[in-house]
């Protein structure tokens, strides 16, 4: 007989105790067997097996052998892992959607099928902040470490680890915005007839610690040191809609603005008249460092719904996006590198659309929106995202952030306790829309907080870190 020494007994209790302690609610009893076998008695006992008697899931047994009792126990205890299996459907999700699922759960990781690749990815929280994604390599071979400002890629044992890390802010010196009434800060009022203040609040500029973004068309008290806003109410991507200030014209205005401010900056400071003017214009080197934002396309679809049929609106989407792509190329040729692009919101949820919809209550979805119109919007957004993917390949030095305003607004509307579907409300802070088309200040603040932190962006980066992916 071989007597069990206190050291061996203590080692068993310590090692095995750590292994099963966190699963004590599952384990009923543990049995460890040691034996003298396969050698001389002087070499002591060998680890034979460890058996876990589970409360609900039967028995788990591990066996191992080594030259010493301590070595064999170390190997054996490494196998003491309790695994719970769950089977569930895994529909394709974007990275942004998977982050939302992770935040809504109580785990530190989330497995999902990436909608872009069809592959299973694992999203997890990083200790140093941000998120990481484990992406299987198709070739099963390890790669090398590559560093990026926002994403870092490393490969290890056939898997790629993609880290969405916290980085330094970009320090954008200026914003140049192109859009419609959703981002107009006085363009329509300056061009046509006076619109009573307020003419919009530049929440983006606030987030980036920049001054109020003046409308390009506003010649009174305008300051363009931190950029300019070319958006005008009613504007569309294609010409011939509600407003003459379609996207192509806005791009032409920017080109003229850039040319004139660059010429002014190059003038010598001997003339005090020109020297004082330089205070209100951007520096020539700021154009390549600036952020170029887009919130346009909704009026192309709205005008189409108003003057044609849904099938014709669907057929017009490729041409709309051709013009949009051309605008991006023009800006890129002028040195623009950082693009923040909103998709189009829920036209079928606008109160003015629902009020005049002749088929209601038929044709409305669960939250009272016109499903057919929103279906067209979703197709527009899908094709827009595809175009942005192509632009990334065509313009390798640029960075693109696609912002899912559709989902952000859908979440806002579906979770709102009250909505105003009639006349302008007395207390706009309690409603989503104040005129049946546009969001109230309260709704805009909610949306800005939701999208500027990257929650609805692809890639999921906050606006102040969107200069490099």
Automatic annotation (TrEMBL):
Claim: Glycoprotein is one of the keywords in the record: yes
Domain Sigma 54 modulation/S30EA ribosomal protein C-terminal: 81-133
GO molecular function: hydrolase activity, acting on ester bonds
Keyword Glycoprotein tagged: yes
Coiled coil feature spans: none
An example Gene Ontology biological process: regulation of translation
Record InterPro entries: GDSL (IPR001087), RHF-like (IPR036567), RHF/RaiA (IPR003489), Ribosom_S30AE_C (IPR032528), Ribosom_S30AE_C_sf (IPR038416), SGNH_hydro_sf (IPR036514)
Pfam families attached to this UniProt entry: Lipase_GDSL, Ribosom_S30AE_C, Ribosomal_S30AE
Keywords assigned: Glycoprotein, Translation regulation
Top-level lineage group: Eukaryota
Protein family according to the UniProt entry: Belongs to the 'GDSL' lipolytic enzyme family.
Protein name: Sigma 54 modulation/S30EA ribosomal protein C-terminal domain-containing protein
Organism of derivation: Anisodus tanguticus
